[in-house]
Design goal:
By secondary structure, the chain is an alpha+beta fold. The protein has eleven helices and 22 strands. The chain has a six-stranded antiparallel sheet with strand order 2-1-22-21-20-19, sandwiched between helices. Strands 9-7-4-17 form a four-stranded mixed sheet. Strands 5-6-8-16 form a four-stranded mixed sheet, with helices on one face.
Length: about 525
């Protein structure tokens, strides 16, 4: 019934005071709506002038839709409001005993701060690096889509090595006690679809396995990271000829600390990436830190095995005089840029956890309460926007084109709003949008946050629940537009889902390009 009502209405609905829609935009929307693939789908559009607030297009703009990753605009803005764009994550190391003759007569405690990069993406110029299409961020390796790869030149141990060298430079040669990770910033949480939330991170809490094809009939080579002594990865991957459809790659844990990757790759293809979550981040980081200390010339009496000895954690707060090293991150604005440019799901969820901490709670879901207050103050209606996570990966989550456009337009007037604008992918230039419309007149003129939801059913059916875009357009006339284009409920088959997804993405993009060229 819902779709039938939508289909009966005109292609584009205008506010009474709005000027006419450019014919090229009307024509593009009409062509998209007329496609048989969208006979049972819903398309919503809302466009406003950034300067005046005038409504330019309103096609079912106040209706609720499955949104996907555009919900990251809400979670990142909430973190910016709570902490400020210049906030830096401090990850200190404290000693629990005195230093005598180069020996710490006690333990070392590394206090986690919620720094999801923790050295991995840090660049010499103070920025955080990210992949741009066609190279997909390593966090998407488990999707099976081609293109995920590790970040070039990145080092999962960068922050730990830096801390270890600082401790050695402070005159420490031996730690008589243990090494402990304090991850009490917030309670570990595993209630969202994209994986567990922790305040301690290494390689963004993923074990990445890169598979390199060999000659046909030969085993494929693998490399993996972050490597620690108590974890191993073995390969049973074979290389098949170029004309053979390979069996999917699958990375599994055989037993604690032992992983195996199976499947096939085609000779001559590029390397492939698969990953699994690190099951116990505090224990993993503790082992990695002990190994980093030993590489730096600091002996640790405790064995570099086993779980994190959290019972040894001292009461807080820590004494500043006991701090012997500190890792300081780039500013929060750089983290927001990574989240928005690559659509980093767990990074967006982490922002909700950190917002909860700022509001006085150690429970991650409490951050959504504060987030709702932040976005309603910027014009979002709680009747048409529903928050369930920070990433937009819960399909119960909803928002409307009107809510997003109102929010993004009002955001620019806040002291921190431009960092959401600046963090979005640029059409045809970088992030998830690097290859989209590259070389066209619209390239470089649209700031985009896109969203996608593809969902299968036990019945064997599959659908594109959502293909959405929001952002800012520098139109051909020079005026700035704020837009939301939402396409929902595109049915497909398992064999055609990639084509259906690609077509939906292309059609939403075509409307956005028409907006940029038509105004």
């Amino acid at each position: 019934m819902r779709n039938a009502v939508f289909a009966a209405l005109p292609i584009v609905l205008l506010a009474a005071s709005a000027p006419s829609v450019p014919p090229s935009v009307e024509q593009t929307v009409a062509q998209v709506v007329a496609k048989p693939a969208y006979a049972h789908s819903v398309l919503g559009i809302y466009v406003a002038d950034q300067s005046t607030g005038d409504t330019l297009i309103d096609r079912f703009g106040d209706k609720m839709y499955v949104a996907g990753s555009i919900m990251k605009t809400f979670s990142t803005a909430s973190a910016l409001k709570a902490y400020g764009p210049a906030y830096r994550f401090h990850t200190p190391v404290y000693r629990t005993g005195a230093i005598s003759g180069g020996t710490v007569n006690g333990n070392l405690v590394l206090v986690a701060s919620g720094d999801f990069s923790f050295g991995l993406r840090e660049q010499p110029n103070g920025t955080l690096a990210f992949n741009s299409m066609p190279e997909i961020d390593h966090n998407y390796a488990d999707t099976g889509f081609p293109g995920p790869t590790i970040l070039r030149g990145s080092d999962p141990f960068a922050a730990l090595n830096e801390l270890a060298k600082k401790i050695r430079s402070a005159g420490v040669r031996r730690v008589r006690g243990n090494v402990v990770i304090d991850d009490r910033l917030f309670k570990a949480y595993d209630g969202w679809p994209d994986g567990p939330m922790s305040s301690i991170w290494i390689n963004e809490n993923q074990i990445d396995v890169t598979v390199i094809p060999g000659a046909p009939g030969q085993p494929a080579r693998i490399d993996w990271r972050p490597k620690i002594a108590t974890v191993s990865v073995s390969s049973q991957v074979k290389t098949v000829p170029k004309n053979v459809e390979p069996k999917p790659l699958e990375l599994m844990q055989k037993r604690p600390g032992a992983y195996v990757i199976t499947g096939e790759v085609r000779s001559g293809d590029a390397s492939s990436l698969r990953n699994v979550p690190i099951p116990d981040p505090p224990a993993y980081v503790r082992i990695a830190f002990i190994e980093a200390l030993r590489r730096a010339g600091v002996t640790v009496d405790a064995p570099a095995t086993g779980s994190n000895p959290e019972k040894l954690l001292p009461a807080r707060p820590y004494s500043s005089s006991a701090m012997i090293a500190d890792h300081v991150s780039p500013p929060l604005s750089q983290f927001i840029k990574v989240i928005l440019k690559v659509s980093y799901n767990r990074g967006a969820d982490l922002m909700v956890c950190l917002v909860a901490v700022k509001s006085g709670s150690r429970e991650c879901p409490d951050g959504l309460v504060t987030e709702l207050k932040t976005i309603t103050a910027l014009g979002v209606s709680p009747q048409s926007t529903l928050l369930y996570d920070g990433a937009g990966s819960v399909d119960s989550g909803r928002t409307s084109p009107l809510d997003q456009v109102t929010f993004l337009r009002n955001l620019i007037g806040s002291p921190w709003g431009r960092y959401v604008h600046d963090g979005m992918a640029i059409l045809g230039v970088d992030g998830t949008q690097a290859m989209n419309q590259r070389g066209t007149d619209a390239a470089g003129k649209v700031r985009v946050k896109d969203g996608s939801r593809v969902v299968g059913s036990p019945s064997g059916q599959v659908a594109v629940y959502a293909k959405t875009q929001v952002g800012y357009i520098t139109a051909r006339s020079g005026r700035t537009l704020v837009y939301g284009v939402f396409l929902n409920d595109v049915p497909a088959t398992p064999d055609s889902i990639f084509e259906a997804f690609t077509a939906a993405d292309h059609d939403v993009g075509a409307i956005v390009v028409a907006l940029q060229q038509g105004y």
